[in-house]
């Protein structure tokens, strides 16, 4: 009887886990759809900004704006790691950690300063013993634009002052529901790497109206903020997608475990019932003989 009770407890526990993971799956799915729409909606706009920044950084006098200049060789590399506020999103954080470690090994930890966005990012950097100069939290809802200016102002200030030679973001890029790619993207200096699908600007003169300086200043004021905001949106969409898939897999595994436990429970229960019937039969036979 003790084995029967143990199976009942295990089945009950598995059912409770399945209910919990299913509820978390539905919550993540509801957040995921909106997050995916927001991330996908801003991609074309940000790609346009990247193309324009490439043009400006290559064809304008760097003296027009500090962000058009190359970073100071004496400055450190700033790595901004964007990760979820909480776990239960499959291998998302692990993949980000692997991407980060490769970047650190290539640069050298002594030449890097870290900015963390999200609690998991903070934990990852502290595990590798990195120097954290600033920490930001996003909360559990969709990223708000109000979070972006402090991050942009900090990295812009350090780049202007020569304390940073390069600013790199490492985050999870949203591709689709089943695919989230750990990505390394350089925001400063303004020399974006073009994809194969893009055409680099022709090497010719460009005319700016009203003037190059008047075009550059307002553009660069918004460039960093818009691209950082898109990165946060991508990371959030990737997080919700990964969590929805992870919770679905957990629910399926719990259901499979319930089925296996129920089968074993029925076998043990049937063997006990059979043994009891045999005992009753033997007892009846002994009474009849008496």
From TrEMBL:
What NCBIfam families is this protein classified in?
A: ATPsyn_F1gamma (TIGR01146)
Annotated organism of origin: Candidatus Woesebacteria bacterium RIFCSPLOWO2_01_FULL_39_10
* Main location, first listed in the record: membrane
- Under which name does UniProt file this protein? ATP synthase gamma chain
Per the UniProt record, one Pfam family is ATP-synt
Answer yes or no on keyword Phosphoprotein.
no
Ranges in a coiled coil: none
List GO terms (cellular component aspect): plasma membrane; proton-transporting ATP synthase complex
Biological process terms from the Gene Ontology for this record are:
proton motive force-driven plasma membrane ATP synthesis
Name the job this protein performs.
Produces ATP from ADP in the presence of a proton gradient across the membrane. The gamma chain is believed to be important in regulating ATPase activity and the flow of protons through the CF(0) complex.
| Assembly and interaction partners | F-type ATPases have 2 components, CF(1) - the catalytic core - and CF(0) - the membrane proton channel. CF(1) has five subunits: alpha(3), beta(3), gamma(1), delta(1), epsilon(1). CF(0) has three main subunits: a, b and c.
């Amino acid at each position: 009887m003790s084995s029967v009770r143990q199976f009942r407890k295990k089945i009950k526990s598995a059912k409770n886990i399945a209910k919990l993971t299913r509820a978390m799956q539905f919550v993540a799915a509801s957040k995921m759809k909106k997050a995916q729409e927001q991330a996908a909606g801003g991609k074309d706009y940000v790609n346009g900004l990247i193309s324009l920044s490439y043009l400006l950084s290559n064809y304008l006098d760097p003296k027009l704006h500090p962000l058009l200049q190359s970073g100071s060789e004496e400055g450190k590399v700033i790595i901004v790691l964007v990760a979820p506020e909480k776990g239960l999103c499959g291998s998302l954080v692990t993949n980000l950690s692997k991407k980060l470690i490769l970047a650190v090994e290539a640069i050298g930890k002594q030449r890097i300063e870290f900015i963390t966005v999200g609690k998991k990012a903070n934990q990852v950097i502290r595990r590798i013993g990195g120097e954290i100069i600033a920490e930001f939290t996003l909360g559990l809802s969709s990223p708000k634009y109000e979070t972006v200016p402090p991050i942009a102002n900090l990295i812009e200030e350090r780049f202007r002052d020569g304390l940073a030679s390069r600013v790199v973001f490492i985050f999870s890029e949203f591709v689709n529901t089943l695919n989230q790619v750990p990505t390394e993207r350089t925001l400063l200096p303004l020399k974006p790497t073009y994809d194969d699908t893009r055409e680099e600007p022709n090497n010719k003169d460009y005319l700016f109206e009203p003037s190059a300086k008047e075009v550059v200043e307002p553009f660069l004021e918004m460039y960093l903020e818009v691209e950082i905001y898109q990165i946060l949106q991508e990371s959030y969409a990737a997080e919700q997608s990964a969590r929805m898939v992870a919770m679905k897999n957990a629910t399926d595994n719990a259901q499979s475990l319930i089925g296996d436990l129920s089968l074993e429970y029925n076998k043990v229960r049937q063997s006990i019932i059979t043994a009891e019937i045999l005992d009753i039969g033997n007892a009846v036979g002994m009474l009849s003989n008496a």
